[in-house]
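Q: Hi! First time asking for a complex rather than a single chain. Here are the components, and I think there are three in total. Is that enough to go on?
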Amino acid sequence: MNAADPVRFGALKQRALLVGLAALALSLVGWFLDPQQFYQSWLVGFLYWIAFPLGAFGFVCLHNMTGGAWGFVIRRILESAAGTTPLMALLFLPVVLGLHDLYEWADEAHVAADALLQHKAPFLNVPFFLTRAAIYFAIWILFTQLIVRWSGQQDEGNEPRPNLTRRIQLLSGAGLPIYAMTVSFATIDWGMTLEPHWFSTIYGMLFVVGQGLTTLAFSIILLSKLSEREPLAGVVKTGHFHDLGNLSLAFVMLWAYMSFSQYLIIWSGNLPEEISWYLNRSAGGWEFFAPVLIAFHFALSFLLLLARRRKQAPSALMRIAVWILVLRFVDIFWLIAPAFSPGEFQLHWMDITAPLAIGGLWLAFFFHRLGSWPLLPANDPRIDEALKAHEVHA
Amino acid sequence: MSDVHDVYGLMVEFASTDDLLAGCEQTRDAGFKNIDAFSPAPIHGLTEAIGYEGKGWIAKTVFIGGFIGAMSGFFLQYWTSAIDYPLNIGGRPYLSWPAFIPVTFEMTILLAVFAAVFGMLGWNKLPQPYHPVFNVQRFKLASSNRFFLVIESVDNKFDRQATRAFLEGLDNAVGVYDVDY
Amino acid sequence: MTEPQGVLKPDPVIEPGHDYGSITEKIASIVDTGRQPKFWWVGFGIGFALMQLFLVSAVWLLWEGVGVWGINNPVGWGFAIINLVWWIGIGHAGTLISAILLLLRQDWRTSINRFAEAMTLFAVACAGMFPLLHMGRPWFFYWLIPYPNTFGMWPQFRSPLVWDVFAISTYATASALFWFIGLIPDLATLRDRATNRTGKFVYGLLSMGWRGSAVHWYRYEVAYLLLAGLATPLVVSVHTVVSFDFAIGIIPGWHATIFPPYFVAGAIYAGFAMVLTLAIPIRWMYGLHDFITARHLRNMAKVMLATGLIVAYGYSMEAFMAWYSGATYETAMIEHRLFGSFAHIFWALIAVNVVIPQVLWFPQVRRSTAALFCVAMVVNVGMWLERYLIVVTSLSKDFLPSSWGEYAATRWDWATYIGTIGLFLTLMFLFLRVLPLISIFEMRTLVPGGAGKKGGDDE
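A: Yes, that's all I need. Here is the structure of the assembled complex.
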């Protein structure tokens, strides 16, 4: 077969769609039974899955700016994932519907009795919240769709198109700071304001790093499967996995660094307005989450990723990546869910079905996009050099 | 064979990495075991070309160093702050593990760095004030732009005349020299 | 196929036409000809003169006491801590270039890592002067180190100031060793090229009998890569611990969770500005355009742009959260900064650290060495202002208005500060004189096709 032909993922797409729809149906039943729980579970699932397209958006920009062989082999995975932002906007609708059930500050009676929330009201009010969400999605959709379209145009013909490549680079250069800023404020809006008295300046970065790690793990899983067959079989080398493994190691360390810094500073200051966030997460069953995250999200992942031979074996690296994706969910769950039941651990069946619903739908759309274009970008002036350079290193 | 210990070995000079690599492979394939190559910069594949099959102990040394650093760093703080000189600082527990992480981390790095530096020097048996290869006049170019291969006289196959002839027969050999003790 | 534009196909990291011999000759001859260009004497002269200023002010300080500085109650930190943080931050770019860029396989680092690492060491040395002198009785500095003593006391390990002792001394030790390990093969080159006895002896002693054996190179490369892997988290941890000096307490304006990453980014920002400040004149002085190419300068400019944006992110998050938190003291502090008695410094900071560096978006600016040099100088100043603002605002106006106080630096503050710049320049110029300022052996590995086929001149 021709290397430029797209690979179709019909079966995968169907399976994902089926799981997604089934979970969605179950969750809708749950919505009738307990709408509040439905919104809460949906928000957790949404914040977990939005890391896939947004982290990919960040990484595409980063790679367009810096080059590097690791990025060319996963570029189509990243671009296809980033291209799914319109679906995420659609999946945000339940959060809009459940605004009053989710956020204290959206409840006028509650605000009237709380001086601090009145102070924050110019920022924390429903119209402005919705406007901001619309702006975030508009920016994300605009950037990702342009990048995807231009990258597709670059494939056409057989010659490099320097002007187009340059345009993609410019867009990515602007995209990176905009990505960091929008994701920070989006996660502050959607996650931090669940406990509206609490604040932490590092909160946005914590999510930015988490999204990066999610995307890396996801790309590694797909690449290890795709590298077994054409057109990537001959192109992907152990060196690429090694680089991706090292990047994952760096992001595992960054995640631990950010999480620990926040904890140490708040623990040490021990101020009532800050420490409450950790107190809510260290009683009634929640206290087991932090040790699990330290031991597995950080320590075990770190030690596993330290060994060179594991980073160079696609199947071993893939297992670590799956492991990381599971723990990413645990982390998001721990960050968000205790806001709904502080100091009292609760796991509802919708906490499983809602993320499954979002994930199934998202994966179906992702495979649809991935199947619509060649798996290896063409005509980027840097790609040949980058892929060749890697043979020497690997 | 009396001539075996008259010299440390025989040295051949090359002008490029490719010649050196080819020469090393030929020498290795000819059955010589005690050979060493010298170059002004690290060359990929040179250790394989001289038939070196050593294990990489450096990484393990560093890991052990880091582990000792982490343990000693943490227990230093634990013992001083909780056992030998317990002091109430703003109501924090004696075993304030979050506060002990930074120093534990620094100690981990410090001892791992020591292990890497002194491990590398130790496994390479450096510093070494004297080595016979420096007796060859042209060997000072080994730190500039020339490449050398030495067959040591302790090698079982070493024979002063035959080995010299063998080395002179290598492709693009620039010159062959005796390495005196 | 049409020729891609320059922006897409990167410039070389080493100009064509070089081989092992020519690289060795070009770099090593700066050291072993013994003659230095006129500019070396000018630069060294200025540095040496300023260093005298440092010695005088240090002696005066020890004679008279720390009262000669402008520090007071409540502003007990003043210039000492501002300059400590400024210098340490500058040092970080050296480690970043030598370690992180090595791990990221960025081969353009090779021609700048050596003097960037030297810069790290000297910057850390200058930084170390300040806490030592600030103690007032520097001869008791060893009280900070945990050792069994007759007082029966131990350092207080819950204090970030003690963490700082560990972090900075580990950093100084590790940077020195990393630098020295990188120098060994080049010291062997200098040993082999030396013509006089002193050179042969000193370089011979320092190169430890390095002979370029294949197995040695193999172990060397493994160890060097591991050191890079260790130095990377170390450099992040050092400025993190520096940020903890502020953030662990509950002083408004200091107690912010963003501080660790924001300080690290600021350090890299300042450090790259200083590398450019040094690289541009050095390149011109020694005619090193073949080795420090336009690509090096451009890449450093891009790193500055990126880290500058992270710093700007930090400023905006701080300001936003100060308002959002609704905490009285945080809000008051940010008002002091934005509109109060520190407004002129704050807005100057925003201008030099955030607004002006945005010119780096334009390729024309990144291509012009003069423009780059100016931007780098602006950032050097900007990062100093940032630390001034952080240290002085929060200390002079904390919780109770009755305990507020003003801070003004004395001329001895300035003399000490400018004096350390002299110390830095002196060490830097001495380094240029006695050690190869570019890693010779690593430059050799950049020669296309591997090695000196052409042989070069053999005497």
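A: The interface with chain A takes residues 1-2, 4-5, 7-9, 103-105, 158, 233, 236, 240, 244, 247-250, 255-261, 302, 306, 309-310, 313-314, 317-318, 321, 324-327, 361 of chain C (CB under 8 Å). Let me know if you'd like any chain examined more closely.
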